[in-house]
Amino acid sequence: MPTTEPKVQPPGPFALAGVSMRDLLASCAAAEAVSTPPRLPDPAVARKPVDHPRAA
User: Fold this and answer.
1) What's the rounded Cα separation, in Å, for the pair 27 and 21?
2) If you compute the radius of gyration of the chain from its CA atoms, what whole number of angstroms results?
3) Residue 21: CB partners within 8 Å, gap ≥ 6?
4) What angle do CA 19, 22, 24 make, to 5 degrees?
5) What is the C-alpha to C-alpha distance for residues 28 and 34, in angstroms, rounded to an integer?
6) Prediction pTM value
7) Labelling 27: which of 10, 21, 34, 35 has CA 20 to 30 A away?
8) Is there a contact between 7 and 1 (Cβ–Cβ < 8 Å)?
């Protein structure tokens, strides 16, 4: 019985046509930045008002 070699298939479509990986990653980072709410200020680092000396 002859040995059959496995058929080589062309690679499948792993990316959308016309979209580079850099653009895809940048759009994901932008979407995450827009959809993430801003962090609340840290209460341990409360700012004290600075007492400036008055000018003469």
Assistant:
1) 10
2) 29
3) 15
4) 55
5) 10
6) 0.41
7) 10
8) no
Residue with tokens 């980072």: 29
The residue type found at 1 is M
Q: What distance in Å separates the CA atoms of residue 14 and residue 32, rounded to the nearest whole number?
A: 22
What is the C-alpha to C-alpha distance for residues 48 and 22, in angstroms, rounded to an integer? 43
Q: Residue 21 — left, alpha, or beta (φ > 0 → left; ψ -120 to 50 → alpha)?
A: alpha
> 21 with 15: CB under 8 angstroms?
yes
For 2-35, the pLDDT digits (tens) are 567 777 776 666 655 688 999 999 999 999 999 9
